[in-house]
C-alpha cells in the first residue's frame, strides 16, 4: 500500500493527468446536457470561478497547515473580514454619514485599541491585576461613551437605503489587498495569544474568532448594514446589461452563434476568471519561491521536527505566527474576491461548515503541503459539492422511483440534500486514513 | 422593597437562566474533558454528537407521545433519554472503531485526531439533518412552570415577577445527579479509577494491566451519556436547532479549558463561570439599577455587550485563560 | 514447580545472549543477565551502554532478534509486558512511574489492578515497608517529595506480589540520604524472597548491596561478578567507578 503510494507520488504525470480530468469535467459541464451535467457554459464558468476563489482560500489554509501544521478552524471569519474590504473601500461614500459620526467613531475605535495597548503596558510594568482592570474599565466606559452616539447617528442617517459608514469610493481591486490586510491583523491578534501553546488551542481560539467576526458583520449595521446586506458593490469587470446594449458585442456574439444574453454572461465570467487566475498564479508563484528559499526550508524543518528546530535556536512560535498571518492574509484576499464576484455582502451566508470545514476537505484531499494539490482539491471538491446537490436527489429519485408515492418516498427525496454533508465527512475521513498525503502529495 | 425587587429581577433574569445554562455547559464540558483526558484530543464533533443524541431522543419522545405515554408533570423526553443515550453510545463506539482507533494504534499527533473529529462532525451533522431536518423543534411537555410570574407577584406583593420554568429546575437537578454519579464512579469504582489512572499515566496504566481499549470504550459510553443528557436539557430549555449545537461548541471548549482540560471538577466550575459571565455581560442591568438607585437615569440599557455577542464572552474568557494560566484553574494536563 | 529444578543450574531469571534494538541498529549485542531467588542483581556501566535497554528487553518492551528469557524455568521470550506482570514480574520505570493526580492508596490499588482477590494484606505490607508514605495515603502522589514518590512507585510494583522486581535507576534525582534509605528498603524487599534486578547510576553504592553485578559496555557484558568482587577489582574501579 505505502509502496504503491510512494510510486504514484514519484510519477511526474500525476498532477497533469488529474488536472486534465478536472478540465474534462468542466468541458462536459459546459457542453453535455443530461442528468449529470447542465450543458451550460454559464454554469460551468460560475462553478469554476467560485472554485478558483476556493483554491486561493485553500492555498492560504495549506500555508498554515501544510507548511507549519497549524489547524485554523476560523477560515470563515478570515473570509468574512476580507469580504468587509470591498464594502469599505469601493462603495461610494454615504452622504452625511461621516458628518454624523465619523470622527467620533474613529476616535472610539482608537480609544478601544489604545486601552488594550495601555493595559498591556500597565501589566508588563506593574503586574498588578487591579491596575489592569482599572485601565480596562475606564477605557471601556470612554469607548462606549464615544462609540454609542456615533453609531446611532450613523445608523439613523438614511437608514432605509444606507445607514452605514459607507466606503471610500476607491477601485474595488484595491480592496482585495485591503481584505488581506484585515485578515492578517485579525490573525496576528489570535496567533499572538494561542500560538506556542498546545496545538488544539489554536484550533479552538480560531473557531472563536471566526464566529465573532461573523457576528460583528451581522450585527454592526454601521459597518456593512448587517443582515440588511450591502448590494451593488462595484465590479472590476463590465456589466452584462451594458454588453447587451453594445452593438459591437452583439455583433461579436452573433459571430459565435450565441444568444446575446448568454454571451454577455459568459464574457463577464471569463473576465472574472482571468482576474482570479492572475491572483491565483501570483500567489502560487510567491508561495513556491518562498518555499524554496531558506525561509521555506526553515519552515519545513520546524514542521517536521519542532523540538529539533527549537534546540537549534529557531524561534518556533515567532515563525508560526508569521506563517499564520500570511496564510490568513491569503484567505482574506479570497474573501474580498468572493464579495466582489457576488457583488453582495450578505453576512448570513457565512456558514462555518461551508466556509471553514469544506475548505479543509479541499486541502486534505488535494494533498497537504502541496500548493498545486490544494488548487486541484479545491476546484474538484467545489465542483462535486455543487453537483452532488443535483446528483443526490436525481440518484435517490431513480432509486426510489419504483416505490409508491407516500411519506417514505417524500422523506427520502427531501433528505437528499443532507447527504452531501455525510459524503464530505466521509471523503475527509477516507482520505485522511487511506491516502493521508492526498491526491497530489508533497514532493 | 426596592432592594427585594432588584434581587428578584436579578434572580429572574440572571441567576436562574445562568444556572440552567451553566449546568448544560458543565455537562458538555465534562464530556469534552473526559475525552481529552483519555483520548487526548479536543473533540470538535462534540456539539454535533449532542445534536444527534438529542434528535434521537426527540424522535423517541414523539413516538411515546403518540402512544400516549407521558411522565405527568415531567417532560416525556426524560423517559426517552435512555434510548437517545444508547443510540449515541453505539454511534460513538462505531466511530471510535472505524476512525479513532486507527490513529491510536499509529500514535498519531493530537492534531490528526482533531482533524478526524472534524470529519466525524460533518458526518454527524449530516446524520442529524437526515433524521430530523434543520428546523427548530420544541419537544417539552408536562408542567411549564414551577413558579409562574403572576403567582409570584400575587404571593409576594412585589412589582417584579419571578419565573422558574420546570425545564430550568430539571436541568439543575439532573446535572447534580449526573455529576454525583460520575464522581462516585470515577473515585469509588475500580473501572473509574482505572480511567483516571489511564488519564494520568498511560504507560504505567498499561504496565499495571489496565486494558486501554476497555478504558476507551467506557469513556465513549460515558461521554455519549453526558452529551445526550446535555443536549436534551439544552433543547428542552431553549428548543432544538441543530446549528445551535455546533455553536455551543465554543462555550463548551471555553468551559473545559478554563477549568483545566482533563479535570472533571474544573469542567463543572468552568461551565458555570462561562455561563454566568455570558449572562451577566449581555444582560441589560438598567432595570436592576433602577430599583437600587431610584432617581438615576443612566440613559442607556447598561448592557455591556449585545446578546448577539454572547460568544465573544466565551472567547474573551478563553483568551484570558490562555494568556495567564494555560493549564486552567484546576491545573489540567500540562501544555 | 520451581523446586523441581535444581537452583544451581537454573537461576530464577535468566536472560541469555539478548540481541536487539529499536530500529535497524542493535543496542544489545549478546547481553546475558541472571538473577537467583532473593538475590539483588545490579547493572552498571557508562552512559549509552544499554543498561535501561537491557531492562526493557527483559521486561518485553523491546523486540529481541536473538536470545531468550526464562522466568522460573518457563520461556517468556514471546510474552508482552502485561503478560509478564501476570507471570510475576514487577517493573518500576525510571520516570513517570506514579499516577500523579491519584492518591497514594489509589496508586497502590492500581498496582493491584490485575488481582481479583483481597489486596488489603499486601497493602498493609507495603505500608509497613514504607511508613513515610503510609502517613500520606490520602494525599495525591504527585504532591509528594521525590524520594517518597519513588517509594510509591516501588510500592505500586509490589502490589502484584511479584517474584522479580525490576527497578530502573530508582535513586535518580534523590538526595544521598534518601538514596541510602531506598537501598535499605530494597534489601528488605529482597529478604522476603523477591529477586531484584536494577539499573543504577550510583554504581559504587549499588554494588555494595549487590549479590551479583553486571558491568555493561556497548550492549554486552564486560564484567560479571559479585558486587564485592567488582568493587575490589582495580580495573573496574579505574574504568567505571572513577578510581
TrEMBL record, chain A:
Protein name: Amino acid/amide ABC transporter membrane protein 2, HAAT family
Pfam families: BPD_transp_2 (PF02653)
Alphabetic keyword roster: Cell membrane, Membrane, Transmembrane, Transmembrane helix
One GO MF term attached to the UniProt entry: branched-chain amino acid transmembrane transporter activity
Membrane-crossing residue ranges in chain numbering: 43-61, 68-89, 101-122, 129-147, 167-189, 201-218, 266-291, 323-345, 357-385, 421-440
GO cellular component terms, semicolon-separated: plasma membrane
Protein's membrane topology: Multi-pass membrane protein
Compartment annotation: Cell membrane
Taxonomy, superkingdom: Bacteria
TrEMBL record, chain B:
UniProt-listed InterPro entries: ABC_transp_permease, BCAA_transport_permease
First-listed, main subcellular location of the protein, grouped into a coarse class: membrane
Example of a GO MF term: L-isoleucine transmembrane transporter activity
Transmembrane segments: 6-39, 51-71, 77-99, 111-132, 168-186, 215-236, 306-324
Gene Ontology annotations for the cellular component aspect, listed alphabetically: plasma membrane
Membrane topology annotation: Multi-pass membrane protein
Pfam family, one: BPD_transp_2
Localization per Swiss-Prot or TrEMBL: Cell membrane
Protein name per Swiss-Prot or TrEMBL: Amino acid/amide ABC transporter membrane protein 1, HAAT family
CDD domains: TM_PBP1_LivH_like (cd06582)
Protein keywords: Amino-acid transport, Cell inner membrane, Cell membrane, Membrane, Transmembrane, Transmembrane helix, Transport
Taxonomy of the source species: Bacteria, Pseudomonadati, Pseudomonadota, Alphaproteobacteria, Rhodobacterales
Single GO biological process annotation from the record: L-isoleucine import across plasma membrane
Family as reported in the entry's similarity comment: Belongs to the binding-protein-dependent transport system permease family. LivHM subfamily.
From TrEMBL, chain C:
SMART domains named in the record: AAA
Gene Ontology molecular function: any one: branched-chain amino acid transmembrane transporter activity
An individual GO BP term: L-amino acid transport
Keyword annotations from UniProtKB, A to Z: Amino-acid transport, ATP-binding, Nucleotide-binding, Transport
InterPro entries for the chain: AAA+_ATPase, ABC_transporter-like_ATP-bd, BCAA_Transport_ATP-bd_LivF, P-loop_NTPase
Pfam families in the cross-refs: ABC_tran
PROSITE patterns in alphabetical order: ABC_TRANSPORTER_2
Domain of life: Bacteria
Gene3D superfamilies per the UniProt record, alphabetical: P-loop containing nucleotide triphosphate hydrolases (3.40.50.300)
UniProt entry tagged with the keyword Ubl conjugation: no
SUPFAM superfamilies assigned: P-loop containing nucleoside triphosphate hydrolases
Identification of the protein by name: Amino acid/amide ABC transporter ATP-binding protein 2, HAAT family
Organism annotation: Paracoccus sediminis
